[in-house]
Each structure stands twice: as C-alpha cells, then as structure tokens.
C-alpha cells in the first residue's frame, strides 16, 4: 500500500471520528501552558478516558487540555511501572461538553485492537503533536492545531529485540531522519500519541501509544495498548463487584 492510499484511509477515519488525538500541556504557574506531549481520548459504554504515556503524564504534573478555556483534568492518573510506559485518567463527565465544543472527540472503544500478535509487516501510522507543532497564547489555544502523521510499517520482532525492547510489550516502526530548514526531525511531543494499524480494507484500529524515538536505530517505539485495557477492565470489574460496590 502506498503513502497516498494510507493517508486517504486515515483522513477518512479522522473525518468520521474527529480529533481523538490531542495535544496535552502542563501549567507550571497557573498562567499559561507548556506543550508536553500527546494523548488519546476514548469513550467506553459509560465512561470517558484519556490515554497517554507514563512519562508524559508525569511531566504534566496534572494534565491540561487546551480548549476555550483550558480544562485541567482532576481525576487521578493511573500509571504502569517501567517498562510499560502507559497511563490513563478518567475524564469527568462534566468536562465532556467543553472538550467536544473545543473540536476534540472521543474514540469509540470498539476501534481499539489490544492484540498481542506480531503486526509486522503491516502498515502503521503514528499520530501526535511533535515539538513546535502547537501555537499558544497565554492560557488558551489560539488556533486549531493539526497533528503530524508518520506512516511506516511495523518492525519485525527480531528488530524490536535487537533494539533492546520486548515485543510482547512494545511496537516499533522504522522512520527516516528528515531535514526541515536544516533541522532534524524532532519527535518531542509525539509521545503519548496514537499508533494506528492501517489495513488495506480501510480498517483502522488503535494498537499502541507512542513512547520514544530510538535515534540510533531509526525507530519510533511504542507500547502495546493491551496492558492499559486489561488494567481498566480489572478496575471496572472490581468497582462493580459486590466487594467493591457499584460506582
């Protein structure tokens, strides 16, 4: 599948489902925000969530979504420990209308594929907000910010192992270092964004979350989303059990 075909499939997907990948910020002094990374908004049957990477959430020290005005997510963030670089927080239902009004959207949970199988050599796309991709003015976003999409193919398990990662936990995709105005590709801010599985039948599924750029091997690295989904299911099941009490 060529780049143009992949781009068309993902564009159609985004037109149907909206801006589910969003930039996230921290507010160091309560007046103004700093772009830290990316995140994915997800909706289950009765709840709303924000998925991102552990290190992005830690750097935020309280996640901020830039809308009009900004929304500071109050819910507790649940972290995974290294090497699973994932985190999530529940979005309060009262914040949802403002998030939707700001042009953001929630991904239906049915479009998540928490597979553990090898995805090589299928097509993939990393979507997020790299460094300098976000324009800010004070405490509010001033213009619609478009994410960057990087197309590639999933690396073989042997490539992931050679780079020092566990293919049961991680995903990887080769990416060429590109030059823009004498400046090398800077993936800072892409972390926490989506890794999409893009199939020729136009099916697009969320399979992972971007976590880092292995510059030495020219790889974008991500964490499979399966551990995060399993964790949420476990917590929801516990909350609804007789011991946990319905919530």
What's the CATH architecture name? Beta Barrel
Count of helical stretches: 5
Which blocks of ≥5 consecutive residues have pLDDT under 50? 137-143
Q: Give the termini distance in whole angstroms.
A: 46 Å
What structural class is derived from the secondary structure elements? alpha+beta
Query: Tell me, what is the CATH class?
Result: Mainly Beta
N-to-C series of helices and strands: HEEEHEEEEHEEEEEHEEEEEEH
How many runs of DSSP E, i.e. beta strands?
A: 18
Main sheet specs: 6 strands, mixed
What portion of residues is helical?
10-25%
The tally of structural domains comes to: 1
Radius of gyration: 18 Å
Overall residue-averaged pLDDT value = 84
Describe this structure in a few short sentences.
The protein has 247 residues and is of the alpha+beta class. Helices cover 20% and strands 33% of the residues.
Write the layout of secondary structure elements.
Layout: H1 3-17, E1 21-26, E2 34-43, E3 48-52, H2 54-60, E4 64-65, E5 71-72, E6 77-79, E7 87-91, H3 96-101, E8 107-108, E9 123-128, E10 136-137, E11 140-141, E12 148-153, H4 157-162, E13 170-174, E14 179-180, E15 183-184, E16 194-198, E17 204-214, E18 219-224, H5 226-240
Parallel strand pairs: 2-8
Antiparallel strand pairs: 1-2, 2-3, 3-7, 4-5, 6-7, 9-12, 9-16, 10-11, 13-18, 14-15, 16-17, 17-18
């Amino acid at each position: 599948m060529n780049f143009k075909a992949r781009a068309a499939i993902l564009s159609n997907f985004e037109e149907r489902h909206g801006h589910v990948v969003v930039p996230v910020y921290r507010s160091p002094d309560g007046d103004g925000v700093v772009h830290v990374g990316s995140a994915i908004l997800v909706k289950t049957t009765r709840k709303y969530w924000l998925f991102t990477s552990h290190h992005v959430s830690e750097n935020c020290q309280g996640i901020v979504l830039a809308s009009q005005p900004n929304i500071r997510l109050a819910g507790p963030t649940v972290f995974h420990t290294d090497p699973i670089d994932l985190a999530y927080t529940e979005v309060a239902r009262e914040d949802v209308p403002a998030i939707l009004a700001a042009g953001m959207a929630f991904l239906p949970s049915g479009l998540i594929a928490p597979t553990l199988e090898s995805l090589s050599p299928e097509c993939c796309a990393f979507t997020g907000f790299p460094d300098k991709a976000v324009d800010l003015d004070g405490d509010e976003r001033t213009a619609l910010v478009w994410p960057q999409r990087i197309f590639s193919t999933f690396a073989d398990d042997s490539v992931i192992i050679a780079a020092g990662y566990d293919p049961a936990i991680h995903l990887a995709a080769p990416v060429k270092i590109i030059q823009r105005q004498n400046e090398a590709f800077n993936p800072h801010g892409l972390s926490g964004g989506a890794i999409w599985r893009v199939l020729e039948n136009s099916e697009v599924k969320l399979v992972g979350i971007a976590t880092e750029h292995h510059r030495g091997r020219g790889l974008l690295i991500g964490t499979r989303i399966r551990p995060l989904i399993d964790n949420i299911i476990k917590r929801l099941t516990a909350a609804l059990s007789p011991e946990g009490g319905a919530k």
